[in-house]
User: Fold these one by one.
Assistant:
Number 1:
Amino acid sequence: MQTPADTRIPMVLLTGFLGAGKTTLLNFLLRHPSMTGTAVVINEYGDVGLDHHLVEQAEPDEVELIEGGCMCCTSRGRLAEALMTLFTKAQRKQIPSLKRVIIETTGLAEPGPILSQILRAPQLAERFVLDSVVTLVDAANAGTTVEEIDIAQKQIASADALLITKSDLVDEAALTALREQLKGLNPDAEVYVPKKGAAQPDWLFTNGRRRPQSADFSLSPLILKADSIRLLPVTPGAPDSVDPWGEGPDWNDIQTFSLILDEPVPAWKLFGWLDFLRSLTGADLLRFKGIVNIQGQDKPTVLHGVQNLLHPAEELPAWPSDDHRTRLVFITRGWGQETVRNTLAYLQDTPNEDPLLKPATP
């Protein structure tokens, strides 16, 4: 059975710490012939950052026509409203055809809360679909931002694609080291190196290859390699490998690991465990994704989460292979791996009653 075409308008969330080069990249990208019909929503306070020959300034209730048939508006904290304004004006032919949207964040924004605005607004779900989170990383200042700044780490870990900017300001050895560092923070992200802002549109807009309901969707390499980074459960009754009240992992330690379940899991138990886990880890559960075998369902479910936000679960038309195990891959900070390990009993136990109502297995 052929997957029906998704007619919703694709969106890209463009992030990057202060000075990463978002404006330079957009100024180049919006001149590309294939980007006609693109809207840019500036999700920050203050003046629009695109240079003067593209756009002067747009008030929250205005849409400004910019070069190449593109549009720009500022949301100033009212993202859903700005997106609906764009959609309505396009429907009424008040602006050119709206084909795609780039949401540019301020350099100090965490992706999680912005994604929450997008994905939890029911009026947007029928009209827009999130395609990618793209984060720019400044090669010239990576030593400070990537290693020391909390917001920058969250932006990197949340990304589907990482674009290394200002690569001409560092030597090849430094660029190679930065690539490796980024892969350590987010091994699931595609990494590109645009020269002087010359990004390609398909680095951002993927034609659905990152969206489970698309015919072009494919499982991420990280999920496919889940066995090689598997978190092994603690033997029942054995002491924890790390004393939770003693010396443990560094709080800024970024960890990537997977959890594999051989048997189907009840939906209520899985989602209850994820809610419980997110409440314990907070924003330090930087990212997780996986393919899940839910009890009583023949088709697999794809999950994706960023910080405290769980994207809507999506069902694939069929299993991509004969491997029907649940595979969840996590990127966490600090105590994340220990928190997952210590809550496995919640997920693996099989009582008839809700595990939340009984003590955890010691």
Number 2:
Amino acid sequence: MQDQFETGLSRRWRVLLVACTIATLLPVGLFVPQAVPMAAGRVVVIGLVVCQAVVVWWMDRRPVFVTISSLLVGATLELLHVPVGSGVALIVLTTFSWLRPARTSLLGLAAAVLFFVLALGTTGRGLQALLWSGAALLAWTWGALGRARSAQRDSEARRMVQQERARITRDLHDVLAHTVSLMVLQAAAANDVFDTHPDKARDAVAALESVGRQALGEVRRLLEVIDHDSSVSPGLGDLDRLVESMSQAGVEVVVNRHGTAGIAVASRIAEAAYRIVQESLTNVLRHAGAERAEVDVRIAAGQLVVAITDNGGGSRLGHGSGRGLDGMRRRATELGGRLEAGPYAAGGFRVAAWLPVRSQPR
């Protein structure tokens, strides 16, 4: 899998990186007089040290250039027997492996080992070259692990955003499909009796207004949920209002509750149950040609069981097709439950969902 994770260094981290570099190079005053007796040589060494300290400031913009430069300067200092550049090289290598994917940062590790092994080997310090190689590998590994953890957190955040978008899409579908279907039916009913029975037409228009207001309320609730106020999510207590809107559309709906009194149901579970009932009743209204529907809500074996049965044409193929039935299934499975839908043995169509009483962790 290709590493697409992108990261960078903020100004605060760059300041910290420069500070760590300077702290690592502070002992240079102890080594330079002993290693470089000539004044001109000391100036060269001090210049290299300053260069190695300053160049790390651009680690965020030019990481490859900074890494190679730091490694070359550090190896040169080792050639001059001034053992202060290796520490900075390890810091830079760790940062580089965190900033860039492994296919790139491994080249930095190879360059680090090559430069310092050559510098230490040509000056007769074979053991130090071996120890340096191990230290460089540890530094690279530390940075790579940090990058992997950051990438995992970033991936998890993206997954949560995608899940939330999918949930909002399903909620919008449920709200709009239900209310628009009711509004279309009420408008059609008003049009049919507009000339012959004005009073009935007026009642249908009043019902149309009521459904429209409910739709606005549902959308407002959804927007409030998006703003992280989950307390306004619809739940089992809103089923009566849902049933009333269906009755206005000419479908008699009966709700039976068994064992739900005094049982605490997580808000996400209650909302999912409400949306499943809403979508099922919308399908009854749009596809079934039913006159009556029954909603059964019960708590059994640690599960919230919701079943919606109608007396329409149970063998119809169009019932719940598309986003509706798929959305209901996803709601159930994402919460650790399941959903079944199909023609009912006694006639009509039945949708049943089993949801855990308490929400499962995401």
Number 3:
Amino acid sequence: MSNTIPLSFLDLAPVPEGKTIAEGIAQTVETAQQAEEVGFNRYWMAEHHNMPGIASAATSVLLSHIGSQTKRIRIGAGGVMLPNHAPLVIAEQFGTLQALYGDRIDLGLGRAPGTDGATFQALRRQMKDAERFPQDVQELMYFLGDGTDNSPVQAFPGAKSNVPIWILGSSLFGATLAAHLGLPYVFASHFAPQMLNQAITTYREQFQPSANLDKPYVMVAANLLLADDDATAHYHFTSAQQSFVRLRRGETGQMPKPTHDMDRIWSPAEKMMVDNALSISFIGSVETVKPKLAEFLAKYEPDELIVTANVYDQAARLRSLELTPELNLFTLQRDMTLA
């Protein structure tokens, strides 16, 4: 791998406890602007439903707002959960974004519903819809491509926009599909790290060059929270840990405030579960994180890293972004047009 790689940011538009959704979105805009200022490559948002602590359910709508409040950073979905939608609708939405913001737009696609079964039904979908994911991806690629001139159904906007499509996954299914279609692949190691090595190996070994991509391109995800000292970073990261505990308990709520005593909140079994799920996390000062992150990058050799910092304290998120250049591990894009 090269000495440095591009760095991107994944956001869930967290709504902190005591804040309104409008206030959470305002903080999200501030985060996107800080990411752009620092030199991040992409700013992606993820689709989730029925979660009061996440404001990115209407992903394309919020991305349009982010696009209007930034100038050059790539913006996109990481991802749209395609089983929730008709491919034509997503082609129209992201074709509209491309018309508004040009070549800044990315479209990452996931197979999971991004919600619970009851909400999935409220979306007028069925669990079997996920079985059509490969076909739906290809249908979406068709609508966004150049070959629909004689089709009775076309995406307006969308046709000929050729918005770049990525496949997201946490198993071998997405890796195999991305390889077969010759698309870039993103592994969700920030919350489901178990099959990271196997999935990216499978993708690289099975990759078939396409009109979209001539060689494999892997982006891996991690939790990254930098602070001026280790204790401060770990304190703020307890917000993410509490959110994971609540999720596994089936509890709802906004992004919780950090705590100095997680042991009063989780059981030993829950701690083990969270530690396992969030094992790809780099939390601490620049001096603490840099060698650990460098070792991780050397081991997996990703083409790009996408990080998230889903915490309560907005100042802590912004400070983490501000400190990122001090890692000296990434190709940060400043005062240039992003490719």
